[in-house]
From TrEMBL:
Organism of this sequence: Jonquetella anthropi DSM 22815
Record-annotated active site: K176
Top-level taxon: Bacteria
InterPro entries xref list: 6-PGluconate_DH-like_C_sf, 6PGD_dom2, 6PGDH_NADP-bd, HIBADH-like_NADP-bd, HIBADH-related, NAD(P)-bd_dom_sf
Domain 3-hydroxyisobutyrate dehydrogenase-like NAD-binding, chain residue ranges per copy: 170-290
Protein name in the entry: Beta-hydroxyacid dehydrogenase, 3-hydroxyisobutyrate dehydrogenase
Length: 301
């Protein structure tokens, strides 16, 4: 299979991210076969010409490539390695691309088992949120063989503008962990900075105008502080999925004998947020905890 021979693509997982990604594949001219747990969430791609499949295995039938974008490593393991999973169902030569943020160890296992059956497997997690998925501007971090990457390059370019192979199997997932570590500490920093500004009696919007273009500038600062201040906690990325990601990063760090205290703090705070009922909020909802501190401070004064 050459890169140009990929015409029909199976897509598993039409959620917050998968919806935009599938739409961009259709716009790029690929024929799409889709499966997701709730058929109604696939309404838009189905109306645009995608074909519904009744199982992950069925998406592989007649597909040159299959992409998965699901929630948790347990889902990935079941879809790829379970009975009638993709490793068993896909024809030799099929390209399998898991774009879920998942375990590097699991990615390596999938690549190994896939290679035994003549399959080309990549782990290719993404960054850019639902906005990047919709616009086709995702950053895609790829792990796998150079041959598999070259087969996938055109396919991945239909969904992202930054597509980079980071090394062998699992290295895409390790790169995504770097991304999530940066975001975790950054979200804590933005929340604390806004909390401080409000406690000091500053005008937060004026403060952000001063600091957002200097050394403190970041994507998280630019895009999340307005949502925090307005109480807009609509999920572009769910708190429950971010907790999953931080857990993978912490486990991987332990396996490498690394201690990451900043990540440990962020993980603790987000778990507290989830316990308080915020697991289905967007990650910017971390500010809820800090806003609570402000309310408590006002009650004491």
């Amino acid at each position: 299979m050459t890169q140009s021979s990929i015409r029909t693509v199976g897509f598993i997982g039409i959620g917050v991210m998968g919806r935009g990604m599938a739409s961009n594949l259709l716009k790029a001219g690929y024929s799409l076969r889709v499966f997701t747990r709730r058929k109604e969430t696939a309404k838009k791609p189905l109306e645009s010409g995608a074909v519904w499949c009744d199982s992950p295995a069925q998406t592989a039938q007649g597909s040159d490539a299959v992409i998965t974008m699901v929630g948790f490593p347990a889902d990935v393991k079941e879809i790829y390695l379970g009975p009638s999973g993709l490793i068993e169902a896909a024809a030799p030569g099929t390209l399998l691309v898991d774009m879920t943020t998942s375990s590097p160890t699991l990615a390596a296992q999938i690549a190994h088992d896939g290679a035994q059956r003549g399959l080309f497997c990549l782990d290719a997690p993404v960054s850019g949120g639902d906005t990047g998925a919709a616009k086709g501007t995702l950053s895609i971090m790829v792990g796998g063989t150079e041959e598999a990457f070259e087969k996938a390059r055109g396919l991945l370019s239909a969904m992202g503008t930054e597509v980079h192979r980071q090394g062998g199997a699992g290295m895409g997932q390790h790169t995504k962990m770097v991304n999530q570590i940066l975001i975790a500490s950054g979200m804590v920093a933005v929340s604390e900075a806004l909390c401080y500004a409000k406690a000091a009696g500053l005008d937060p919007e004026s403060v952000m105008a001063s600091v957002s273009k200097g050394a403190a500038a970041s994507w998280t600062l630019d895009n999340r502080w307005p949502q925090m201040l307005s109480g807009n906690y609509k999920p572009g990325f769910y708190v429950k999925h971010f907790i999953k990601d931080m857990g993978i990063a912490l486990q991987s760090a332990r396996e490498m004998n690394l201690q990451l205290p900043g990540l440990e703090l962020a993980d603790k705070l987000y778990r507290q947020l989830a316990e308080d009922g915020g697991e289905n909020d967007g990650t910017q909802a971390l500010f809820k905890l800090y806003d609570r501190y402000l309310v408590a401070r006002r009650l004491k004064s």
